[in-house]
């Protein structure tokens, strides 16, 4: 499996990106990884013996977090992110990963990798933790701020296919983020989307409220990019506040410090269950090949998981299954 990786994207690039690639390449000999970036900065982190299944494409240009996405993709033709996407377009890689500028990666995905035929809008889709530890896919979280009902329908289909093919869930439960669980709730967008999702070839289980989507009762939750991004950032902020409050409480006095010491393994396990590193990156569904956005703060472990996630997407032909499903739905609609 050939995967191109933007070695210069992310808060801890290239060190953590390269170390993650080394972990993945060492563990899985079937991988062929291409690190795109400044060779002089990449090589010191490859270890004493570079894995034979890692190669480097040298470039000294890269896109920063402050660059305007479209302008950067057009002007920085030799940037690590653009060359990473170019590897996929020209058939030298089956998929690509970047922990860099999210907007630039989405733009590169659309302009260079291209969309699946029949998909109107791609969706950015992370996997979030749930109470039962299994997690769920939330889409869209910001690829498209505005959406139409048909876009949400396609999100539901793509999310369901990913949950089944990559996460191994039989008949994934798909919910629609809304202001109430009752049928007929919501604005014009969600009412129309509810109707379309109910007719789709997926296991649509109805509306879901924001307070319930971490319950483990849903495998896929669909929403527009505006609401999805707010839900994602609110969830992240709440988790940060929660652990900060726990830490403050346990450091309050000697008695609580002793309690913290006794509960240290359980607290570590709790924190690990909510770490983004264990859930991989956010897939950009709807593109002609797997494109994964790793978390900007990714460490080596997070990159290793993202590589494995990307490999599974490619091996299970997620892109092809999505295209065939969408085309089949359109054919049924035309014949109806």
Automatic annotation (TrEMBL):
BP-aspect Gene Ontology terms: fatty acid biosynthetic process; phospholipid biosynthetic process
Role of this protein: Catalyzes the reversible formation of acyl-phosphate (acyl-PO(4)) from acyl-[acyl-carrier-protein] (acyl-ACP). This enzyme utilizes acyl-ACP as fatty acyl donor, but not acyl-CoA.
Any one cellular-component term (Gene Ontology): cytoplasm
Catalytic activity: a fatty acyl-[ACP] + phosphate = an acyl phosphate + holo-[ACP]
Record family assignment: Belongs to the PlsX family.
Protein name as it appears in the record: Phosphate acyltransferase
Pfam families: FA_synthesis (PF02504)
SUPFAM superfamilies cross-referenced by the UniProt entry: Isocitrate/Isopropylmalate dehydrogenase-like (SSF53659)
Quaternary structure and partners: Homodimer. Probably interacts with PlsY.
Main localisation: cytoplasm
Molecular function as annotated in GO: phosphate:acyl-[acyl carrier protein] acyltransferase activity
Compartment(s) where it occurs, according to its Swiss-Prot or TrEMBL record: Cytoplasm
Keywords linked to the UniProt accession: Acyltransferase, Cytoplasm, Lipid biosynthesis, Lipid metabolism, Phospholipid biosynthesis, Phospholipid metabolism, Transferase
Pathway stated in the Swiss-Prot or TrEMBL entry: Lipid metabolism; phospholipid metabolism
E.C. number(s) listed in UniProt: 2.3.1.274
InterPro entries (UniProt xref): FA_synthesis, Phospholipid_synth_PlsX-like
Record bears the keyword Metal-binding: no
HAMAP family assigned to the protein according to its UniProt record, in alphabetical order: PlsX
